[in-house]
Design goal:
heterodimer; A: about 210 residues; alpha/beta; Rossmann fold; 3-stranded antiparallel β-sheet; 5 helices; 8 strands; about 30% helix; B: about 220 residues; mainly alpha; 9 helices; elongated
Chain lengths: ~210, ~220
C-alpha cells in the first residue's frame, strides 16, 4: 500500500537521510527507530507530502495519507466533540466512509473520551489532548497513517488502548501505518532502524533553499 | 470548506477569539479624531471620508496576524495541509471568515460613526457601498500577508509593513468614492475600480497565499 524507493529527504536544506527504501503492505505497521535527530520526523513529513523530497519516490493511494505529530491541532475554545466533528467534516467532504454520528461515538469511547465530550479543549490535560489528537485519526477515515511519537504523554493504559485501536480497527480494515516511536507499542511489527540511511555530511542537494 | 468557515466563525465568537476587537478599535479611533482636530463641523465633514477609511483599514489590520498564527501554533495548519481541502480553498475561507468578523461589522458601524464626524448626508450611501466593496480586498490582501509571516515569531509588525502599502489602492478609491459622493459628484468610476481591485485580489491571491503557506510549512 505504501512504497518508498530511494528516498532522500532534507531538513533546513541539509540532507539528513538518503536512499531510504521500504514497503508497507495493507494491514501492517512499520516502526521507525533511531536516535534523536536521525530524521524520523523529517522522513514522516516528507512521506505526508508536507515537504518535497530531494530524490526518490513515495507511492500510496492519493488522498489516503494522514499525518499526526506532537501538535494535535486542538482548539482550546471548542469542545472535544466539536473538535472531532470538525476534522470529520473536513475529511468527510471527500470521503463518505467517515460520516455518521455513530462513528464519532465509537471513536469517543475507544479513546476513553466519552466523559469528556463537552469539555473544551483548553481544559484537557496533556494526555487527554493526546488521546483527542489520536481520536482524530479514527474519524478521518484515512488509510495510510504517518505517526510521529503518537504515545508521548500517554499512560500505559492509554498506550494499550491506542495499540488495540490500531490493530483491531485500523489495520484490520486494510489500513497501514508508519510510526516513529521510542517505546514498545506491543504490536508485532517490523522495525526499521534509520541509522544506516544517515546522509553523508557532504551529500549534495538542497541548493534550491540556499537563499531562504 | 463550510466546516472550516463554521469553525473559524465559532472560534471568533467564543472567548478569546477577538470578535469585535477590530470594531471597538474602529470606534475609538473615529471618536478620538474630533478630540484631536477640534469641534469644527466643516473641517470634520471634509476629512470624514478619509478618517473613516483609514480607521477601517487599521481596524482590519489589527486582527490579521491571528488568521494563520493560531492554527500554525496548535498544529491545525499542518493537519489542514494534509487534509483533502485544497490550500487555495483554505486561504479563501480564511479571508472570508476574517471579512465576516471584521469587514462586515465595520461596514455596518461606519454610517453611525459618519454621523459623529458630520459626514455630508449624500455620502452615507456611498460610504456603505465603498466599504462593502472594499473591505473584502482588505481581508484577502491581509490573508496573503498573514501567510507570508506565519512562521515568524512576533511577525505582527512585519505583517503591517508588508500589508499597509498594498492597501493603498483600496484606500484611495474607497475614500475617493465617499468624497465624490459627499461633493455631489458621480462616484461610479471610483466604485467600479474598487470592485475591480476586490475581484482581482480574490481571483489571484488565494493561489499566492496557498503557495506561500506550502513553503512556510516545510
Amino acid at each position: 500500500m505504501l512504497r518508498v524507493t530511494g528516498l532522500t529527504c532534507a531538513r533546513g536544506g541539509l540532507p539528513v537521510l538518503s536512499n531510504v527504501s521500504f514497503t508497507v503492505p495493507a494491514g501492517e505497521v512499520l516502526i521507525l527507530r533511531g536516535a534523536n535527530g536521525i530524521g524520523k520526523t523529517t522522513l514522516l513529513r516528507t512521506l505526508a507530502g508536507l515537504q518535497p523530497s530531494l530524490d526518490g519516490a513515495v507511492e500510496y493511494p492519493e488522498d489516503e495519507g494522514a499525518y499526526a505529530s506532537h501538535a494535535d491541532g486542538i482548539k482550546a475554545a471548542l469542545t472535544v466533540t466539536e473538535n472531532l466533528a470538525f476534522w470529520a467534516d473536513v475529511h468527510g467532504a471527500a470521503n463518505p466512509r467517515s460520516d455518521s454520528n455513530a462513528g464519532l461515538e465509537t471513536v469517543l469511547s475507544t479513546f476513553d473520551l466519552s466523559d469528556l465530550r463537552d469539555r473544551t479543549g483548553g481544559t484537557l490535560s496533556a494526555g487527554q489532548k493526546r488521546r483527542l489528537g489520536l481520536a482524530r485519526l479514527g474519524v478521518i477515515g484515512r488509510k495510510v497513517l504517518f505517526l510521529d511519537e503518537p504515545t508521548v504523554s500517554l499512560d500505559g493504559f492509554s498506550v494499550k488502548r491506542f495499540a488495540d485501536w490500531l490493530r483491531d480497527q485500523h489495520l484490520a480494515h486494510g489500513g497501514c501505518a508508519v510510526i516513529a516511536t521510542h517505546i514498545d507499542l506491543g504490536l508485532a511489527a517490523p522495525e526499521l532502524d534509520l541509522t544506516p540511511f544517515k546522509a553523508a555530511l557532504d551529500a549534495g542537494g538542497g541548493s534550491d533553499e540556499a537563499f531562504l | 470548506m463550510i466546516a472550516l468557515l463554521r469553525r473559524d466563525l465559532r472560534l471568533a465568537v467564543r472567548a478569546g477569539g477577538g470578535f469585535g476587537l477590530g470594531l471597538a478599535f474602529f470606534l475609538i479611533v473615529v471618536v478620538l479624531v474630533p478630540f484631536g482636530v477640534g469641534p469644527e463641523t466643516e473641517l470634520l465633514s471634509r476629512i470624514a471620508p478619509g478618517i473613516l477609511w483609514v480607521a477601517s483599514l487599521l481596524a482590519a489590520l489589527l486582527s490579521l496576524d491571528r488568521i494563520f498564527a493560531l492554527d500554525f501554533e496548535d498544529g491545525s495548519l499542518v493537519l489542514l495541509a494534509t487534509s483533502p481541502l485544497p490550500m487555495e480553498g483554505v486561504a479563501l475561507i480564511k479571508a472570508t471568515a476574517h471579512w465576516i468578523t471584521t469587514g462586515l461589522p465595520l461596514t455596518i458601524a461606519a454610517p453611525v460613526l459618519g454621523f459623529l464626524l458630520s459626514l455630508a448626508p449624500e455620502a452615507y450611501l456611498y460610504l456603505l457601498l465603498s466599504l462593502l466593496l472594499g473591505t473584502p480586498a482588505l481581508s484577502m490582501i491581509g490573508t496573503f500577508g498573514a501567510a507570508l509571516t506565519v512562521g515568524l515569531r512576533r511577525g505582527g509588525l512585519l505583517l503591517s509593513l508588508l500589508v499597509l502599502p498594498l492597501y493603498v489602492p483600496t484606500l484611495i478609491f474607497g475614500a475617493e468614492a465617499v468624497r465624490r459622493g459627499a461633493d455631489g459628484l458621480d462616484p461610479t468610476g471610483a466604485l467600479m475600480l474598487l470592485g475591480g481591485i476586490t475581484a482581482g485580489t480574490f481571483a489571484l491571491l488565494p493561489f499566492a497565499t496557498a503557495a506561500v503557506l506550502r513553503i512556510n510549512l516545510r
